[in-house]
Automatic annotation (TrEMBL):
Signal peptide: none annotated. One of its GO terms (molecular function) is phosphopantothenate--cysteine ligase activity. Catalyzes two sequential steps in the biosynthesis of coenzyme A. In the first step cysteine is conjugated to 4'-phosphopantothenate to form 4-phosphopantothenoylcysteine. In the second step the latter compound is decarboxylated to form 4'-phosphopantotheine. Pathway: Cofactor biosynthesis; coenzyme A biosynthesis; CoA from (R)-pantothenate: step 2/5; Cofactor biosynthesis; coenzyme A biosynthesis; CoA from (R)-pantothenate: step 3/5. This is Coenzyme A biosynthesis bifunctional protein CoaBC. The lineage of its organism: Bacteria, Pseudomonadati, Pseudomonadota, Gammaproteobacteria, Chromatiales. The gene is coaBC. GO terms for biological process: coenzyme A biosynthetic process; pantothenate catabolic process. Residues 11-217 form the DNA/pantothenate metabolism flavoprotein C-terminal domain. Its EC number is 4.1.1.36, 6.3.2.5. It catalyses: (R)-4'-phosphopantothenate + L-cysteine + CTP = N-[(R)-4-phosphopantothenoyl]-L-cysteine + CMP + diphosphate + H(+); N-[(R)-4-phosphopantothenoyl]-L-cysteine + H(+) = (R)-4'-phosphopantetheine + CO2. Residues 15-224 are annotated as: Phosphopantothenate--cysteine ligase. Keywords: Decarboxylase, Flavoprotein, FMN, Ligase, Lyase, Magnesium, Metal-binding, Multifunctional enzyme.
Length: 224
């Protein structure tokens, strides 16, 4: 590689990042989606690359340019993202799940455009696979960094996710009310088993650099 194999805090480390929303079809013209811009995940991919990593970025539908030197795989649905992550898994040392994956999808997408008839319409939804939980349960297992987007009880919910998914680290951010999603600024509470660090409000690009530095520090304790 042009970048020396061991240059930078993540030199030679194979990093896979998920980013953006997923989009779940209701019918040929309609989807269930969310407000994720993908900007945090793209900034993490760029920062990991700058730290010397070999980066694969698995991106839901977003309007963002691919960071220089990063391999990008575009996906649409949670099922597509799940497949792409599993196929990258054998060559992943460090996994960062920054995507806002849909938790539910229509149980059966209609092949035909739904017509408006009744006054109300109920959609049957089913759970999507939890990509991060599955990666973390996989053996051998990459170093796993998750996100927790919360409107309430930020730290308690993030600690619970760190434990439930057996993650190495989690980055918690408040969302809603002009925070986090659809914003260019953010703030993160980064947690791991024995510690925590607050990354105060900054641009997503600056936060991504700080988060990657912190992740690299923890990663190198396990893989010197
Ligand atoms: N995640 C994932 N696959 C899913 C859902 C979530 O990989 N199907 C990942 C996200 O990328 C994030 C972490 O899991 O890194 C937590 O996502 P979040 O939505 O905050 O939590 P959930 O576990 O989905 O729980 P809930 O939405 O109920 O809070
Ligand atoms: Ca969720």
């Amino acid at each position: 590689a042009a970048l020396g194999k061991h240059k930078g805090p993540l030199g030679g480390v194979r990093v896979t990042v998920t980013a953006g929303p997923t989009r779940e079809p209701i019918d040929p013209v309609r989807v269930i989606a969310n407000r994720s811009s993908g900007r945090m995940g793209f900034a993490i991919a760029a920062a990991a690359r700058a730290a010397g990593a070999r980066v694969t970025l698995i991106a839901g539908p977003v309007a963002l340019a691919t960071p220089r030197g990063v391999t990008r795989v575009d996906v649409e649905t949670a099922a597509d993202m799940h497949r792409a992550v599993l196929s990258a898994l054998p060559s992943t040392d460090l996994f960062v799940a920054a995507a806002a994956v849909a938790d539910y999808r229509p149980a059966a997408a209609s092949a035909h455009k739904l017509k408006k008839t009744a006054d109300t319409l109920a959609l049957a939804l089913e759970r999507t696979p939890d990509i991060l939980a599955e990666v973390s349960a996989h053996r051998p297992r990459p170093f796993c960094v998750g996100f927790a987007a919360e409107t309430d009880d930020l730290l308690a919910n993030a600690r619970a996710k760190l434990a439930a998914k057996r993650l190495d680290m989690i980055a918690a951010n408040r969302v809603g009310d002009g925070l986090g999603i659809e914003q260019s600024d953010n703030a993160l509470e980064v947690l791991w088993d024995e510690g925590a660090r607050s990354l105060p409000r900054a641009s997503k690009e600056d936060l991504a650099r700080e988060l990657v530095a912190l992740v690299a520090e923890r990663y190198r304790l396990i893989h010197p």
